[in-house]
Amino acid sequence: MFTSFLIFCIVVLFLCPTLVWLLCWIVARLCHHAMPYAPFAYTGLALVLLFMGTMLYGYWFGRFQLRVQPTAYTSTKVPAAFNNYKIVHISDLHLSSFADNPAFLQRIIDTINAQQPDLICFTGDFVGFGVEEAIPFTDMLRQLHAKDGITSILGNHDFALYHHGLNDEQKEEKVNQLTAYQRDTLGWYLLRNQSYIISRDTAHLQIIGVDNTSCQGQGFQTISQGDLNAALQFRGRPTGYSLEAKGDGMQILLTHDPSHWRGEVVPTTDIPLTLSGHTHAGQVRLFGYPLSSLMFTESEGWYHNDGQSLHINTGLGCTLPVRIGVPAEITVITLQKQ
Fold it and tell me: Is 3 exposed, middle or buried (0-12, 13-18, 19+ CB in 10 A)?
């Protein structure tokens, strides 16, 4: 797919100046003037070389840049017992991205652990096609550590949508394998339209997780398997035990596609903090603007709406194997009582 994309872009970039020349040539002929082709051909060649150089940079260097982004979520809704509680928010591993450079994944894991998080929240797209991508990295992934564990959800890629040739039953089996891998092999709290409680003294956080939910109005439609109403009901930890909700509390929602926030979360709930991924910020930033902003109203970083906040992490892995101006991102969110 990447090769086809490159060929398409090269052809378009070279042909665009040629088409401009053709239009100019027609006008010049009507006016009895000559229109040389060479300047347009050189322009096309220059565009192709610039594009290829940029892609090579993004492939060899850009996708292995790593950024730790410290930030704070300050709100009156943060329980006092959770003041300075540290959440590492990561997303979009797409583990096949690291097949040619597992050392970079190890660097990511070491960097996350170095933040000494209270909780790690992973907001979906663990793989691109299936759990087999994760198997070579099992020992590395088991090294991830947080005081209150690792919570995850499923993104659109995790549903084997792009594994062509599989029927619905086979895709469902892929999802079941991935669910079992995260919960049983890695020991993550994979939430599939579920929630659980983290307690501190007389306060608690309710961590809510939904399957990928793609809402109309922005982005591109993928799959909607989320059930927010079911997730809001207390379910206990997926590993089989629960903790009682105590006193003062706050809800944190994990949902992969940020379109879900404006599509359902804001209109129908008062959940104060939502964490998402999915956009990758388009993996390319031009003149300071991420390409994802062409498709998504909310595409990276923080957004706020009448007491509700959304944070979008730009991801760690890739779909197309390039990143240009959008490094892999580890977000460190510190909860602060206002």
Answer: exposed
89: exposed, middle or buried (C-beta count within 10 Å: 0-12, 13-18, 19+)? buried
Q: How far is CA 16 from CA 5, 11, 36, 188, in A?
A: 17, 9, 16, 50
Give, in order, the Cα–Cα distances in Å from 97 to each of 75, 127, 133, 244.
Answer: 36, 9, 9, 40
Question: Token digits for 217?
Answer: 């109005």
Query: Which runs of consecutive H residues, i.e. helices, occur in the chain?
Result: 2-30, 38-60, 102-114, 138-141, 168-180, 228-232, 259-260, 266-268
Q: Are residues 90 and 55 in the same domain?
A: no
Over the range 142-180, which residues count as b (16 or more CB within 10 Å of their CB) and which as e? eebebebbbbbbbbbbbbbeeeeebeeeeeeebbeebbe
Are residues 45 and 73 located together in one domain of the fold?
A: no
| 143 shares a domain with 54 | no
Q: How confident is the model at residue 201 (pLDDT cuts 50, 70, 90)?
A: confident
Residues 163 and 259 in one domain: yes
Which residue from 120, 118, 185, 193 is spatially nearest to 154, judged by alpha carbons?
193
Average pLDDT value over all residues in the chain: 92
pLDDT, residue 28, reads 86
Q: Return the CATH number at 300.
A: 3.60.21.10
Is the domain of 320 the same as that of 213?
Answer: yes
Of the candidates 59, 76, 93, which is a domain's last residue? Answer: 59
Counting the structural domains of the chain, the total is 2
Question: Which amino acid, one-letter code, is at 313?
Answer: N
Which tens digits make up the pLDDT trace of 281-338?
999 999 889 999 999 999 999 999 999 999 999 999 999 999 999 999 999 999 999 9
Print the domain residue range for 34. 2-59
